[in-house]
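Can you make up a polypeptide sequence alongside its tokenized fold?
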Amino acid sequence: MRRSALLVAFLLLSSLCAMGEDVMIEQITRPDFPGTYRHPASITQLDSGDLLVAYYGGSGEYGTDTAVYGTRLKAGQKKWSDPVAWADTPDRSEGNPVVWQAPDGLVWLFYVNRYGDTWSTARIKAKISRDGAKTWSDSFMFAFELGSMARSQPIVLNNGDYLLPVYYETGHDPEMTAPDSCSYFFRYNPKEKTWRETNRIHSPTGNIQAQVVQITDKHLICYLRRGGNFLPTTTGYLLRAESFDGGWTWTDAKDTEFRNPNSAVDFIKLKNGHLLLVYNDNMNDRTPLTVAISTDNADTFPYRRNICTGNNSFAYPYAIQAKDGKIHIIYTTNERVDIMHAVFDEEAILKYPVK
């Protein structure tokens, strides 16, 4: 235990996060939180103003003792609640929880179960809550195809439909994804209560974990994590695909200017119409953690700020904008042990124009 504590202390000292008056960063997890492995996490704000964070924890990424846990920060309070197990399948690995409150008040929990040795054998499961995530329905199978994975938050389209990003991971290799790994979306009609699949987004080395925003009724943009392995590279870039028919069909994914170390990103639309992209500005390491703002519908991102830098990993960022306008980003660090929570106003990024 002492050696572990010293290691965490060293990692914290070897990184630098933009804590101060304009960016506040706190550690959500405590030593008594379940799991020596806690990664990745998602966040949503309920109608009540409470913040919910879901993560999966256990002995390791491929441990069969993992479960999905939820913790809550009640509106007006400062301490996150003790985590509660929201989903725990005996002798199977849980992963990648996405917690999200829909416009009708239902809280959705999407997560994955692994049926073999790698995530290429996963399926997506789900639960719903009608009382603000105090209690949950039984779990139900959401996507039966082996290799089905979730990680990204849904959005509500202009016509009221929900669009949930998912992906198909292949390769059966824990150190890489195969070139046919691809992203797509499940689209939900809340009146008909039906989910339908879009086409699949392809790219030369594969892609996973799309993050999507709607620009107009017809035009949508998503940024995607590149596929492949984790070997050193000089050609590792974030990918981008677009839809011109309201999100039903998508182009193939193309390289962008943004570097990507084969790691997750997030991409959201702010209340004022600006777009926020949070990513690791590096081709090979998950540092720094960079926030970029576009004011022209993702044509350019002229404002960028590193909110965490140094010899550490700042992985799987997940962003929302709360009812009060504050931007919340959670990410994992210290060898996937600690879940961190950054809070700031957009102005904290806008005062850092690209030179």
User: Anything to note?
Assistant: Residues 33-307+314-350 form a domain with the Neuraminidase fold (CATH 2.120.10.10). The chain is about 5% helix and 45% strand. The chain has one domain: 33-307+314-350. The longest strand covers residues 37-45.
